[in-house]
C-alpha cells in the first residue's frame, strides 16, 4: 500500500437523518485491508435506494462514522492476504459490499469479480446490484415462465427497468406501474406491455383492471418494491397459487400483516434480499455471467440517468428520493 495516498475522498454520516447528515470529506483515512479483501480504486459508484434506508435509520447502521454505498467498479489498487488468484493489482472489477461512496473501497473478494473486456467499467457499475436483483427475483423469488403475466411497481426505476427488460426477454407479459406518464412511456419502451397509474386510495379499481387484463385470473407474480402504499393492492391481484414478492420499502415498510390473508388465494409471500441469493462468489459470478449474456445477446439497454460528482451527493440523493430519476444514478470520485 506504500504508493497509495494516506487519505481519500469519502461521503460519510455520523448520525441518521435527512440529506443534511451527508458529509463530503477529502481527508478521510485510507481503509486497511483484512484477510481476503481487496482495495478497489473506484471509477464509478452506484447509488441505490437502500442507501436511503441506512441514512434515515430504517436499516440499522453497523457503526459511525459510516460510509454509505453498496457497489462500484474500478481497478484493484491493493490485494489483502488470501485473495483469489484472479484478483490482482490493476484488474478491472465490479463489486458489491459496503463503503462505496469513496475514492477507495475495501471489499470482500467473494463479492468482487473481474469485468469482461467487452463490458465498459461504467456499464459494469450500472448493471450490478439493481440488475442482479431483477435477475435473481425472476429466477428465484418466483421463477417466471414464458407467457406469465406479472406486475412490476416503480417500473421506470433502477430495478424496475431491468425487470421490464428481463421479463420481456424471457417472454413474460408485464403490467407496470410508475408515477408519471413519462416514466410509464419509458417502462413501455423497455418491454412492459400494459402501463397503469398507481392505485393509492383506489385499490378496487386497480384490482379490477388487472383482473380484466389477465382474463380474470390475476398475475402469476407481483414484484413490489414500493412497500407500504402499494402492498394491499399488489396482494389483491396475485392469481391463485401465485407469488407476492415484496422486496423494497420506497414508500415505507409493510407492517401489521395478517398471515391469514394469504389463504384467500393460496398465495406465497416472499421478502427476499439480493445478498442471500448471491451469498457465494460462485453465485455472484454465475448470475453476473448470465446478466452480461442477456445484455450482449438481447441488446439490453443500460439506462443511466446521470453521473454525478461524489461531492454532489446531496443533489443526487434528493433526485432519487424526490422520484425525479429513471434507471441508474452513478457517482464519480
Ligand atoms: P429506484 O430507482 O426504483 O427509485 C425508487 C422509486 O420508487 C422511485 O423512482 C419511485 O418511482 C418509487 N417510489 C414509490 N413511492 C415512493 C416514495 N414514497 N418515495 C420515493 N420513491 C417512491 O430505486 P432502486 O432501483 O435502487 O430500488 C428500487 C426498490 O428496490 C427500492 O425499494 C429498493 O429498496 C428495492 N431493492 C431491494 C433489493 C433487495 O435485495 N431486496 C435490492 C435492490 C433494490 P415512481 O415515481 O414511479 O413511483
Describe the structure.
The strands form three sheets. Strands 3, 5, 6, 7, 8, 15 and 16 form a seven-stranded mixed beta sheet that branches. The protein has two domains: about 5-115 and about 305-330, Medium-chain alcohol dehydrogenases, catalytic domain (Quinone Oxidoreductase, Chain A, domain 1); about 130-275, 3-Layer(aba) Sandwich (Rossmann fold), CATH 3.40.50. It has about 325 residues and is of the alpha/beta class. It is built from ten helices and 16 strands. It has helices spanning about 50-55, 120-125, 130-140, 160-170, 180-190, 205-215, 230-235, 275, 280-295, 315-320; strands at about 5-15, 25-30, 35-45, 65, 70-80, 90-95, 105-110, 110-115, 150, 175, 195, 220-225, 240-245, 270, 305-310, 330. The model has no long low-confidence stretch (mean pLDDT about 95). Helix 3 packs across helix 4 (about 160-170). Strand 12 (about 220-225), helix 7 (about 230-235) and strand 13 (about 240-245) form a beta-alpha-beta unit. The structure holds NADPH dihydro-nicotinamide-adenine-dinucleotide phosphate. The site of NADPH dihydro-nicotinamide-adenine-dinucleotide phosphate (NDP) has 29 residues, from helix 1, helix 3, helix 4 and helix 10. Keywords: NADP, Oxidoreductase.
Amino acid at each position: 500500500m506504500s504508493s497509495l495516498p494516506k487519505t481519500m475522498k469519502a461521503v460519510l454520516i455520523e448520525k441518521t437523518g435527512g440529506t443534511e447528515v451527508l458529509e463530503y470529506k477529502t481527508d478521510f483515512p485510507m481503509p486497511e485491508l483484512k484477510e481476503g479483501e481487496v482495495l478497489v480504486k473506484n471509477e464509478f459508484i452506484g447509488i441505490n435506494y437502500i442507501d436511503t434506508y441506512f441514512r434515515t435509520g430504517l436499516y440499522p447502521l453497523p457503526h459511525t462514522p459510516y460510509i454509505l454505498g453498496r457497489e462500484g467498479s474500478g481497478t484493484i489498487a491493493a490485494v489483502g492476504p488470501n485473495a483469489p488468484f484472479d484478483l490482482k493489482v490493476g484488474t478491472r472489477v465490479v463489486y458489491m459490499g459496503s463503503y462505496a461512496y469513496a475514492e477507495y473501497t475495501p471489499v470482500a473478494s467473494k463479492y468482487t469479480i473481474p469485468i469482461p473486456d467487452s463490458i465498459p467499467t461504467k456499464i459494469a457499475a450500472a448493471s450490478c446490484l439493481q440488475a442482479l436483483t431483477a435477475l435473481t427475483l425472476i429466477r428465484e423469488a418466483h421463477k417466471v415462465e414464458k407467457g406469465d403475466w406479472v406486475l412490476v411497481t416503480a417500473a421506470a426505476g433502477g430495478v424496475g427497468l431491468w425487470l421490464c427488460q428481463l421479463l420481456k426477454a424471457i417472454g413474460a407479459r408485464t403490467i407496470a406501474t410508475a408515477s408519471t406518464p413519462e416514466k410509464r412511456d419509458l417502462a413501455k419502451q423497455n418491454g412492459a406491455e400494459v402501463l397503469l397509474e398507481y392505485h393509492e386510495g383506489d385499490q378496487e379499481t386497480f384490482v379490477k383492471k388487472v383482473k380484466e387484463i389477465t382474463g380474470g385470473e390475476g398475475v402469476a407474480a407481483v414484484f413490489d418494491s414500493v412497500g407500504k402504499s402499494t402492498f394491499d393492492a399488489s396482494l389483491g391481484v396475485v392469481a391463485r397459487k401465485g407469488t407476492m414478492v415484496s422486496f423494497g420499502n420506497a414508500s415505507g415498510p409493510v407492517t401489521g400483516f395478517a398471515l391469514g390473508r394469504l389463504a384467500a388465494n393460496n398465495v406465497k409471500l416472499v421478502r427476499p434480499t439480493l445478498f442471500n441469493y448471491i451469498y457465494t462468489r460462485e453465485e455472484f459470478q454465475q448470475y453476473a455471467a448470465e446478466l452480461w449474456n442477456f445484455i450482449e445477446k438481447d441488446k439490453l439497454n443500460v439506462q443511466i440517468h446521470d453521473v454525478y460528482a461524489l461531492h454532489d451527493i446531496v443533489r443526487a440523493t434528493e433526485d432519487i428520493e424526490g422520484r425525479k430519476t429513471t434507471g441508474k444514478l452513478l457517482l464519480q470520485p
